[in-house]
Specification:
Length: 534
């Protein structure tokens, strides 16, 4: 086990000892889920590291029948799962099985011990074993830390609190700065997709575009005409293949014209400039679903990489884990992705996750997609990025939320819902200056975000530097009049032995004289076994 400071570096008056010499360990035990609530009934219940945000403990669960209750002043340690090794200050509450509570003995500073464990937490986590990493009570109690006398402990803990408070204030300022960057990006998106960003460009070119019939409305009319012509060609090919010869134009009447936006449904759409028009996704693109993963596919002859919901995030593809799926040759045309296809997450009922959108970049050849990813392929491919930006903007997200909501309270998307999403359509030529302005702004925002990330990393490094300084004896000046840690440990040892002796006496076999007095009545205690150790 690695340690902060070697044996020769232990400051004067300090000792190296394990946690079992400094306190007791309470192992968590989870109450029945039927006895857990979020209404404030009973005692606060801590079930895992999700209650700790790095600065503050959030109490949002309670239990009316706790199975393991711990006193105030303990140190909580997450001992199982992804958050194993998370250390945070505790309060009087009930704890679940994924939490242990270390209770320092009188004369030992809880804050000092908490910081000491945090400084050496990697040594603790290293012991975690199993598919779901877990720690045992011995991993905690056998863990060694450097300890000074009580007065020095209090001074060190106070100094660390002071410095960490300054670091916390800095990190909150970074969070505010990051929020400003996010708002800036949203502001740029809004001005881009509503025409404000290219106002000057339009002032120079709009008259020419109108004269040449190249406005957004003109382009929409061209796209709709191409859609009809494409349908007619495909339908005629089907009839010919079936040996049928169409007579007249009656067969053309079967064509269903895609509908435009329902402005009564979307009453809060932003204003768009002269030369732009509104359209529905179903008018300017083909919307289709993907493949369903099931056991029946194992017998199909072809295998292709396929994208899942887990691969698609907001304007980002995560392709470190792409699985394969079996399919038939007849399915390829419908589900094979092309560069520039817009992918929309159908959703799982969660409003904040539904409708994530990203453009497919073609980085994996012959890739297909699952049914929970809906694909949009545009008649005019240049509009793919513009529609992506619209659906990422606040107004676009509001439209997604509008079509996704339902009377049942669940949120989900479908092909038909995406087809009726309204999108602003600018002139084709205006897409270039829009993209250039967005790229310039995004570069600036990304540069600012990268700088904030580097500062955050430096802040975390500063915390570790403070802890290293503290537990090497350099953070706070030594006082020769302080009681040495060895004396403190001797006193704690004597107290433990005295407690064991008293406990032994209480367990002595009663004499006949004592028996004649009658057995003592059985004590009644709370069902939560308060303070019970591991």
């Amino acid at each position: 086990m690695s340690k902060i400071g070697g044996e020769d570096d232990i400051p004067t008056g300090w000792v190296r000892t394990n946690l079992s010499q400094l306190g007791d360990l309470h192992c968590g035990q989870s109450p029945s889920t039927s006895h857990v609530n979020r209404d404030g009934n009973g005692i606060a219940y801590i079930s895992g590291p999700e209650h700790w945000d790095g600065f503050k403990l959030h109490l949002d669960k309670w239990t009316t029948q706790p199975k393991r209750r711990v006193p105030n002043g303990c140190i909580f340690v997450t001992v199982k799962g992804a958050g194993v090794g998370t250390i945070f200050p505790g309060v009087e509450c009930a704890i679940g099985r994924d939490i242990y509570a270390f209770e320092p003995r009188p004369g030992v500073s809880a804050r000092f011990v908490e910081f000491a464990i945090r400084a050496t937490v990697n040594d603790v986590i290293w012991n975690a074993r199993g598919d779901i990493p877990g720690l045992s009570k011995s991993h905690i109690l056998d863990h060694e830390i450097l300890v000074p006398g009580q007065a020095m402990q209090e001074r060190i803990a106070a100094k660390i609190d002071e410095l960490f408070s300054d670091i916390e204030a800095g990190e909150k300022a970074l969070e505010r700065a990051a929020l400003l960057v996010k708002r800036y990006r949203q502001s740029v998106l809004k001005t881009a997709v509503t025409g404000e960003l290219t106002k000057e460009w339009r002032a120079k070119h709009l008259a020419r575009l109108k004269k040449q019939k190249k406005t957004g409305a003109d382009l929409l009319a061209e796209i709709l005409e191409k859609r009809r012509e494409s349908w007619e060609a495909a339908e005629l090919a089907k009839l010919t293949a079936n040996g049928k010869s169409p007579k007249g134009d009656r067969w053309k009447q079967r064509y269903v014209e895609p509908q435009g936006p329902n402005f009564e449904e979307f009453m809060e759409l932003p204003d768009i400039p002269d030369g732009w028009t509104w359209a529905c996704v179903g008018q300017i693109g083909d919307v289709s679903g993907g493949l369903t993963k099931n056991a029946a596919r194992k017998s199909r002859p072809l295998t292709r990489p396929y994208l899942r919901v887990a691969n698609v995030y907001a304007n980002r593809l995560k392709l470190d884990e792409v699985l394969n799926i079996e399919l038939a040759a007849g399915e390829l045309d419908r589900v094979t992705l092309q560069s520039g296809d817009l992918l929309v997450v159908e959703g799982n009922g969660s409003p904040d996750q539904i409708g994530r959108v990203a453009l497919w970049d073609g980085s994996i050849p012959n890739c297909v997609h699952q049914n929970h990813l809906i694909k949009i392929r545009f008649m005019e491919s240049s509009y793919a990025r513009h529609v992506l930006q619209w659906l990422l903007s606040g107004d676009g997200r509001a439209c997604i939320g509008k079509v996704a909501s339902s009377t049942s309270g669940l949120h989900t998307l479908s092909i038909s819902k995406i087809e009726r999403l309204p999108v602003p359509v600018p002139p084709l030529e205006e897409l270039v200056p829009i993209a250039n302005c967005c790229d310039e702004s995004d570069t600036q925002a990304s540069h600012s975000a990268d700088e904030l990330t580097q500062i955050r990393r430096a802040s975390k490094s500063l915390e570790q530097a403070v802890l290293r300084s503290a537990f090497s004896g350099r953070l706070v000046a030594q006082d020769p009049d302080d009681e040495p840690a060895a004396v403190l440990l001797e006193r704690l040892q004597a107290e433990r032995e005295g407690q064991k002796s008293n406990a032994g006496k209480s367990n002595e076999k009663p004499t006949k004289k004592m028996q004649r007095r009658g057995r003592p009545k059985k004590a009644t205690g709370s069902s939560d076994r308060q303070g019970k150790l591991c």
